[in-house]
Write a structure and sequence with these properties.
The chain is of the alpha/beta class. The protein contains 5 helices and 11 strands, in the order E-H-E-H-E-E-E-E-H-E-E-E-E-H-H-E. Helix 4 (168-176) packs across helix 5. The radius of gyration is 16 Å and the shape is globular. This is Mucosa-associated lymphoid tissue lymphoma translocation protein 1.
Length: 222
């Protein structure tokens, strides 16, 4: 059980965020309770993100449960998701950002038993002039789960409560993540809770996509 958590708060050319630092810290504690080896990193530039991901991929192998969580600025363009490093210029383009689909492809090549991708980012796209990066379609291994904090072309919101800041997604994920149930069912509980939150009604609805063909749970003993 291996997890890489990345939270980008302090951007050079974009508005700073507040929640990722807290959300990465809280998720790392919960995943450790579930028996994961966790690497948590904050405020990475593009080169650092590339290095972190390649080291993470080296740790994966057959039967591994792999979790990749990213909180920070991001966007979606024609069904492809990009994470924005802290040094990305304005406006951002695919060549300045990190493709989530490309990471997932490489995770799949390691024959993992479970790939869980949690993206706590916005999915709005502001730069229609950009070309798409080339990504091959995923192999049909039946081992992948996406949890998007928000639906396509929508924002993901942060909560500020005095000194404490948290993403709406993490507020409810931490409530359910220790449950002994199939990971997709656990995420459905998170989706329903976010859907009932009056602060984000009509603004943020979580989205789940998956090809998980076996009842894998984050609580499974490995």
């Amino acid at each position: 059980k291996i997890a890489l958590l990345v939270g980008n708060n302090c951007y050079q050319h974009h508005p700073n965020l507040m929640a990722p630092v807290t959300d990465v810290f809280e998720l790392s504690l919960l995943l450790k309770q579930l028996g994961f080896q966790v690497v948590s990193l904050l405020d990475l530039n593009k080169a650092e993100m590339v290095t972190a991901v390649s080291r993470f991929l080296q740790l994966l192998g057959k039967g591994v449960y792999a979790v990749f969580y990213y909180a920070g600025h991001g966007y979606e363009h024609s069904g492809r998701n990009y994470m924005v490093p802290v040094d990305a210029p304005q406006p951002y383009a695919p060549e300045n950002c990190i493709s989530v689909q490309r990471i997932l492809q490489k995770m799949q090549q390691q024959r993992t038993a479970l790939n869980l991708i949690l993206l706590d980012t916005c999915r709005k796209w502001y730069n229609p002039q950009c070309a798409l990066s080339q990504v091959q379609p995923l192999e049909p291994w039946g081992n992948t789960v996406y949890g998007y904090a928000t639906s396509e072309d929508a924002e993901a919101y942060e909560l500020q409560d005095g000194e404490f800041s948290s993403g709406i997604f993490m507020k409810y994920l931490k409530k359910h993540i220790l449950q002994e149930k199939k990971v997709t069912h656990m995420l459905e509980d998170v989706l329903e809770d976010i859907g009932r939150d009056p602060l984000v009604t009509g603004k943020q609805v979580m989205e789940i996509k998956h090809t998980l063909k076996e009842a894998r749970s984050l609580t499974d003993p490995i």
